[in-house]
Amino acid sequence: MQQEQQSQQSQQSQPVFSGIWLPLVTPFAGGAVDHAALARLVARYAGSGIAGFVVCGSTGEAAALDEDEQLAVLDAVLAGAGVLPVMMGVSGSNVRQVQARVRRLADRPLAGLLAPAPYYVRPSQAGLLDYFRGLADSAAAPLVLYDIPYRTGVKIEPETMLALAAHPNIRAIKDCGGDYHGTQAAIADGRLAVLAGEDHQLLGTLCLGGAGAIIASAHLYPELFVALARAVAQQRLELARRIFHTLMPMIRQFFSEPNPGPLKAMLARQGWLRNELRAPMTPASEALEAALAQACEQIEAAAPGLLG
């Protein structure tokens, strides 16, 4: 009990937007959200050392949930998260609707709102400045920019990102832009906490001075991802590299088919949820599931030596 309390105090003393954040999957059963499975997942990860939860991101199949379902999932996670902070995803192309949704979330105790650029419409950089500043003005919680151009069709350019960093309610960025120079510029500037959003960039971002990560792969073996981040912070880089190289075969497999299909397949094998997604998402192929199972066996064999 004393050790658990010390761990919780350590988590509370860290900057909010740092460490390993988990973008939770949304379990389904018979087409509906499986709240029992969701509660089990939250309880499992709350004790794993992660820094916080992200609800209704792309891994959570947010686009397939209506607003009532999203709020119900959020409230369930808030109820089970304990001292861990919770971030909520907000997205859309209709600016007024997204701002209204942000205002409706003001009564929830959120650590932040994760917001990508408006998808499909591909606004200019000036349009992005207006959009994110408007959301930040409307939000009770801090805004976390989500730069993911392969989903939205538009990149948050470094100059735009640094201009947004001047807003007092924009605090961090989930970096999926694939731009090394942009990542380095944000870290060097120091006003935004830079969180790796591409799982394979975790070690590189942390070694550059990034604050942490929001990564789907941490659903499996979260303790190893937490240990990796801790090893970098302690400048134990050889250990960090060993953990990263151990995890990379699994990470590569996870994203060889659309997320979160492969992830749900492995969580289903472990008994945490049903292997069910909402259309148009489909389950992982049998071949990929077998390859992932093999990669996980190798991680499990190596884990005792990596966690000490």
From TrEMBL:
Location within or outside the cell: Cytoplasm
GO molecular function terms listed in the Swiss-Prot or TrEMBL record: 4-hydroxy-tetrahydrodipicolinate synthase activity
Residues the entry annotates as binding pyruvate: 59, 214
Complexes and interactors: Homotetramer; dimer of dimers.
Protein's pathway: Amino-acid biosynthesis; L-lysine biosynthesis via DAP pathway; (S)-tetrahydrodipicolinate from L-aspartate: step 3/4
Coiled coil: none
Function summary: Catalyzes the condensation of (S)-aspartate-beta-semialdehyde [(S)-ASA] and pyruvate to 4-hydroxy-tetrahydrodipicolinate (HTPA).
Entry-linked PROSITE patterns: DHDPS_2
UniProt-listed Enzyme Commission number(s): 4.3.3.7
Keywords for this protein: Amino-acid biosynthesis, Cytoplasm, Diaminopimelate biosynthesis, Lyase, Lysine biosynthesis, Schiff base
NCBIfam families, per the entry: dapA
Pfam families, per the entry: DHDPS (PF00701)
Reactions accelerated catalytically: L-aspartate 4-semialdehyde + pyruvate = (2S,4S)-4-hydroxy-2,3,4,5-tetrahydrodipicolinate + H2O + H(+)
Organism: Cupriavidus basilensis
Name recorded for this polypeptide: 4-hydroxy-tetrahydrodipicolinate synthase
Active site positions: 146, 174
